[in-house]
Specification:
This protein is α/β, with parallel strands linked by helices. The protein is 44% helix and 15% strand. The protein contains twelve helices and eight strands. Strands 7-6-5-4-3-2-1-8 form an eight-stranded parallel beta sheet. It is globular and about 45 Å long.
Length: 249
């Protein structure tokens, strides 16, 4: 059976001490959750967060990784470096990386392979922008993102991937896809996986929703059959809000 997951994406927020305080608050408040809980932090927090959360019910992930293994790439952080901190997950292909840093399908394919090579589970993000939603081409946009960056993987490799659907038009805008809109895309994603890797793989793949998920709407979203949790942005920066979403399970 696939896992239910609530993953927090801190983005570029929290200085070192603020991040440490939030980690310790979450460690106290997240007890016996009915889902897997992950915090994906900026690189400066990874080692400390993984150390503080060792033995707890909360796993740690990074927000990105390099396409390179090592070498003269100033400012880059490799998957091997991330793994060495104790992190277990890595977000790849977030819409902000695609938009602001022009990350291509090919680059994201390389990042996924690098994460898997270093025993990190990719949380691979897909989703359409407002104009694409208005044109009604959201299904084909998501299909291309998945096929170009993930469908080169073997079944064994793909089994380690978590997919996150983020309607880009609903991130940080206060807008939210309706549960029915989100479910429609999630079901489409699962059908693509079934066509490529078989029904069993599709049924075992965790697909998260990532678009302004809050304690107030999480329960309704998570009740949908193909929505297996959330990739949480702003609400992950406050322990009570994040716990409210976790408790939606």
């Amino acid at each position: 059976m696939r896992k239910n997951i609530v993953a927090g994406n801190w983005k570029m927020n929290k200085n070192f001490q603020e991040g440490l305080d939030l980690v310790n608050e979450l460690k106290e408040k997240v007890v016996n959750p009915n889902c897997e809980v992950i915090v994906c932090t900026p690189f400066i927090h990874l080692a400390c967060a993984a150390d503080e959360l060792e033995g707890s019910v909360i796993a740690v992930g990074a927000e990105d990784c390099s396409t390179h293994e090592s070498g003269a790439y100033t400012g880059e952080v490799s998957a091997a470096m991330i793994k060495s901190t104790g992190a277990k997950y890595c977000i790849i292909g977030h819409s902000e990386r695609r938009t602001y840093f022009k990350e291509s399908h090919e680059m994201l394919k390389e990042k996924v392979l690098m994460a898997l090579k270093n025993d990190l589970r990719p949380i691979f993000c897909v989703g359409e922008v407002k104009e694409q939603r208005e044109q009604g081409i959201q299904n084909s946009v998501v299909e291309a993102q998945i096929k170009e960056s993930l469908f080169n993987l073997t079944a064994e490799e793909f089994a380690k991937v978590v997919v996150a659907y983020e309607p880009v038009w609903a991130i940080g805008t206060g807008l939210t896809a309706t549960p029915d809109q989100a479910e429609e895309i999630h079901a489409h994603i699962r059908s693509l996986i079934a066509a490529k890797y078989g029904k069993e793989m599709a049924e075992n793949t965790t697909i998260l929703y990532g678009g302004s998920c809050k304690p107030s709407n999480a329960k309704e979203l998570f009740a949908k059959p193909d929505i297996d949790g959330g990739l949480i942005g702003g609400a992950a920066l406050k322990a009570d809000d994040f716990c409210g979403i976790i408790n939606a399970f």
